[in-house]
Amino acid sequence: MTAVFGDRLFTATDLNRDSRRVLDAACQGPVTITRHDQHFALMQRDRAAALVRMQEAASRAVEALIHARRILRQDPADPPASLHWLRHADHDDIQNFIDELLDTFTSVAGGYADPSRIDDVLYEWEESARMAMSPEVAKAYAAPAEPEPLWDPRLPMPGPVKENESA
Amino acid sequence: MTPEPFWQPPGAQGGDWTLVARNRRVNKSWRELCERAPADAVRWYEILSQAPMIKIPRRLFPMRFKQYKGAWECRVNAGDRILFVPDPTNRVVDIYYAGPHPPSPYPTP
Question: How many CB atoms lie within 10 A of CB B22?
Answer without folding.
Answer: 24
